[in-house]
Amino acid sequence: MMNTTLKISRTLVAGLSLASVLAIASTAVQADDIGPDKALALRDQGAILAFDKLNNLALAQHPGGRIGDTELEEAWGRYVYQVEVLDAQGQEWDLELNAATGELLRNERDD
């Protein structure tokens, strides 16, 4: 009985591990980083907002903050602007904005 329980537990752990790997791989496939040249072309075409506008929208969430790293990705059929903001209290925030509309998609404290 104990060997059967042990085998079931190992199988369950292996299955959950595989599911986790597949979920991460699926997410990775859904998002593509956009390089600087393409990002500028998208901005010039009007497909995304100007970067200073996106930065200002992010800073409006944390007045007195400073912009850190930024990244543009195409995820789930839309352009997503990811930006780190260091607020006036020194806390770091991770924000995501729809790069075409400026809609706030995520605003989470970085732990």
Keywords:
5 strands, single chain, five-stranded antiparallel beta sheet, 3 helices, alpha+beta, 111 residues
Quickly describe the structure:
This protein is 45% helix and 32% strand. The chain has 111 residues and is an alpha+beta fold.
Describe the protein's architecture and organization.
This protein is an alpha+beta fold and 111 residues long. Helices cover 45% and strands 32% of the residues. It has helices spanning 2-30, 36-45, 51-61, and strands at 31-33, 66-75, 78-86, 92-98, 104-109. The protein has a five-stranded antiparallel sheet with strand order 1-2-3-4-5. The longest helix is centred in the first third of the chain and has 29 residues, at 2-30.
What is this structure's SSE topology?
Blueprint lengths: L1 H29 E3 L2 H10 L5 H11 L4 E10 L2 E9 L5 E7 L5 E6 L2
Antiparallel strand pairs: 1-2, 2-3, 3-4, 4-5
